Protein: DUF2062 domain-containing protein
Organism: Acidovorax carolinensis
Amino acid sequence: MLCSLRRWLRGLEPRVRGHMDRPWLLSLQPWLEQRALFRFQRQPLARGVAAGMFCGLIPGPLQLPGTLLACAWLRGNVVAGGMTTFYTNPLTIVPLYALAFYLGALVMPGEQVMPAWGTVAPDGVFSVQALAAWMQALGTPLLVGLPTLGLLLAALGYVAVHILWLAPAVQRGRRWQRCRTAGCTRPPAEH
């Protein structure tokens, strides 16, 4: 499965590069190529996922522009970075921000108490205004915890891409090692 995912990602590269032949993008091509923004190889993909994981915690409309800038700075894959930002959505943002609050409370001195949802939404109904008020009530621990959580998630995403990318090679090496100890002269066939 991982090999087929890797082949699929590598197959995306020519299609993306085909879209780069637009006349208005021709002047940017040397810069884009130098930055590896559309390379579907291990390092650019890992950097793109890390950028997307970090920038996914940025509020709404700034996630993708932030990811584009981070990918350009880190020389990461823009497609992987942009797709990764979708781990934050209306269902996951509240638990992620609560986790960021607790991480910030761990880092900050003194005792930090998370405000209850009922203090910002007395009737308990979810609304964008209630969510904004709750986020504002989270205060400094949230401001400290968001970059902390973003860095943690970015590091986990970076490592996960490397592990997933190298897993088929490790499996092949193990099969070859077992075959050599059993007396084989040729490597075992791929599944």
About this structure: The chain has a mean pLDDT of 83.
